[in-house]
Structure formats: structure tokens, C-alpha cells
Fold this sequence. Notes:
This protein is mainly α.
Amino acid sequence: MIxxxxxxxxxxxxxxxxLATLCxxxxxxxxxxxxxxxxxxxxEVQAVLAKQYxxxxxxxxxxxxxxxxxxxxxxxxxxxxPDYRVSELIAxxxxxxxxxxxxxxxxxxxxxxxxxxxxxxxxxRALDRVLMGLSGLGLAMPKFVVAPLLVLLFAVTLxxxxxxxxxxxxxxxxxxxxxxxxxxxxxPNLAYCARISRASFLDVLSSDYLRAARARGLSPSxxxxxxxxPPAMLPVIAWLGPALINIVSGSAVVEQVFGIxxxxxxxxxxxxNRDYTLVLGVxxxxxxxxxxxxxxxxxxxxxxxxxLRDGS
Length: 312
């Protein structure tokens, strides 16, 4: 067990190091710099700024210096937000993105799994075809199309929810601010979850051990909840890692549309303004979250299915 944990930690550290190194190289290979504007600053000002942010050093020295700061827990100062450290900006944006992403996952799983079960129980019938057709439409519609349509329907037409902004004054206003962005993030994942759940339930419901359970006279509800649901959830749990990546990548678009001060918006603004430290800090935090989620999903699958504990 100790060897397995040590190996997992080593692989996680190696993955994050490779991710940070690749992102560092790509950012510095892109044309332009963090202080390039339409009206160029005087050379002496540019020299002072470059020295202040250590941009006057050779690229390998910059990389080694930045990596050493990261190991010590310092993500550095933001180039475009001079009054903030990158860690402070992430501390401001991470709870916003986590709330929207968490609500999106709850919506996707809480609705997608029951829809997949209903479609599996009605296999080949009209309801099955309608549900799978709607899920295909949900997968085909990109988030930058879904988000404005939600604003048009729920904010402009029905006046039920705000069309943008972030109001954390009370839990109710916070929930209202997060709901539309969460729905925009959830819809494609909900559609994918429904399809995975349908295929998984179809496979499990046709298995031999469920036929034996029916032959023993067990009630349909007990067969479904106690014998069919746990193994049918294994593909859904395995999908949680890619779903998180999908939500994180989609949050950059959704947060821009709704004007939400989350990690995705900071990432987009940092990339546009060549804010190297901010982009690298967001990439590292998101990468660490993805590694953690993958580890948790693997552990949850092993807990549900004992055959996965020994690799069988």
C-alpha cells in the first residue's frame, strides 16, 4: 500500500511538472510580451519592469527561478494585476468556479443517470428514442451557443434569473448568480452521462446474475437498487475525470459570457495579456485538481468493485 501511494504521488508530481514546463515553454514562445501595448512605454520604463519581474534574465534562469518559487508555494506576482499575487487571484476565483462546476456536476449526474435508466428500461420504444435524440442535441450544441440561449430565455424573456454578474451578498443571490452558468456547463455533460448510463444499465440488466436474482423472486426495486445500480455506476464514475476536464475547459467560455470572476475568466484574461505567472498558476491548480479527482474516482471504483483492487 505504501509503495502504491508513493508511486501515485511520484506520477502526480511528474505530470504536474511536465504540464508546467510545457505551458511555460509555449507561453514564452508566443509573440509579444506582458507589457506590450499599442503605445509602447519608454525604454527605461520597460527595462525597470523587466528587471522587477525578472524578465531580463535568460529563459532557463527564469524557468529555474519560477520553478523554485512554486516548490516553496509562491506562484509569483501577477503582471496585469500588480496589487495581487497569483495565489490571491486564484483564491478569489477558485470558489466561484468550484461552486458553478459543483452544481453542474450535480445536475449532470442527478438528471443524467435517471434518464439513462429510463431509456434503458424503455429500450427501443418512443421514449428511449426521444431521450437519446435530445442527448445527441445536447452534445452537438457548444457552450458558447447554449449560454446566450439560456440568457435569452431565463433572463430576457422570463426574468427568472440574472443574465450575468456575481452577487455573493446572500446565499439566495449567490445561487441565482451561479445557476445559469452551471446549467450551461451541465447540459453537454448531462447528455453524455445519460448515454453512458443507458449503455451501462443495458449491459448490467442483461447479465446472468440479475436473471438469477429474478429467479429467486427478489422484488424489481431491490434488484435495481441493490444489484444493478452499483456495477452500472462504474462507467459513470470513470467518466467523472473527463467530465471535470470538460467543465474546466468550458468554464473559460461560460464565465466570459456571464461575466463571472472565476478561474476560467482569469485564465482567458491572463492568456490575452501575456500574464505568464497567472496563466501558469491557473494551469498548475487545475492540473492538481484533475489529478486529485482521477485518484478519488479510481479509489471509489475500487471500493464499489473489489475486483479492481488487485487489478483483476
